[in-house]
TrEMBL record:
Encoding gene, per UniProt annotation: dhaL
Domain DhaL: 6-200
Protein name per its UniProtKB record: Dihydroxyacetone kinase subunit L
Record has Transferase as a keyword: yes
UniProt entry keywords in alphabetical sequence: Kinase, Transferase
Organism: Sediminibacillus dalangtanensis
Keyword hit for Kinase: yes
Top-rank lineage group of the source organism: Bacteria
SMART domains: Dak2
InterPro entries xref list: DhaK_L_YcgS (IPR012737), DhaL_dom (IPR004007), DhaL_dom_sf (IPR036117), Dihydroxyacetone_Kinase (IPR050861)
NCBIfam families from the UniProt entry: dha_L_ycgS
A molecular-function term among this protein's GO annotations: kinase activity
Length: 204
């Protein structure tokens, strides 16, 4: 299976819908261990992504992802804008040169995104950040040879849930240290939304 530009677009537009619907929930997660703006950041950023990509005709997947990356970097304040921007930019770069994304290249792109996040955030796995969803997902995809929506969904969900027991070492939640244990990491929940909508797209 290959993802065409219009399917990548659909993925991002559906993700936007989830960010709008769950804006208050994401904000409440960030109120518990951060500064309470994560829902606002994601909803604003993805609304801008929608405004940019919806009216644009794309002939290759790389360009949709690049516009998404640039929009998130420039429109989202806080840590998450540059981080999600970096992830989408790495994915875009990995997929450069082909019109559509085949599984192999997509999987490599998610790995590159995970590595980009580590570098940009100076974070490791287990430090209660969005990296704790992206890296396990990259590992999982590398072990596969085709898109499997159900498995992508369940992998992303368990990775997101695992952040609850972690003690934050990076980002604002790190100020709380062990008091962050028992709370989900907001950026990991947003990352779950991205992979959960991807799962829906590949199931169609
Ligand atoms: P801010 O913390 O600047 O208010 P957001 O609330 O939008 O930005 O995003 C917070 C999320 O960003 C966290 O839940 C975490 O997943 C992610 N994050 C924060 N710092 C880092 C980092 N250094 N590396 C990776 N992810 C990070
Ligand atoms: Mg915040
Ligand atoms: Mg903030």
């Amino acid at each position: 299976m290959e993802l065409q530009p219009r399917e990548i677009k659909q993925w991002l537009l559906q993700a936007n819908q989830l960010f709008q619907e769950n804006k208050d929930y994401l904000t409440s997660l960030d109120q518990a261990i951060g500064d309470g703006d994560h829902g606002i950041n994601m909803a604003r950023g993805f609304q801008e992504v929608k405004n940019k990509i919806e009216p644009t005709e794309y002939t290759n997947v790389s360009d949709v992802l690049k516009d998404t990356a640039m929009t998130l970097m420039s429109k989202v304040g806080g840590a998450s804008g540059p981080l999600f921007g970096t992830a989408f930019l790495k994915l875009s770069t990995s997929l450069k040169g082909a019109d559509n994304a085949d599984f192999q290249h997509f999987a490599e792109g998610i790995s590159a995104a995970g590595e980009g996040l580590k570098q940009r955030g100076k974070a490791e796995q287990g430090e209660k950040t969005m990296i704790d969803v992206w890296l396990p997902m990259a590992e999982f995809l590398k072990s596969q040879n085709e898109f499997s929506g159900d498995e992508i969904e369940s992998k992303a969900k368990s990775a997101m849930e695992a952040t609850k027991d972690m003690s934050a070492k990076k980002g604002r939640a790190a100020y709380l240290g062990d008091r962050s244990v028992g709370h989900l990491d907001p950026g990991s929940v947003s990352s779950y939304y991205l992979f959960s909508t991807l799962a829906e797209i590949v199931k169609k």
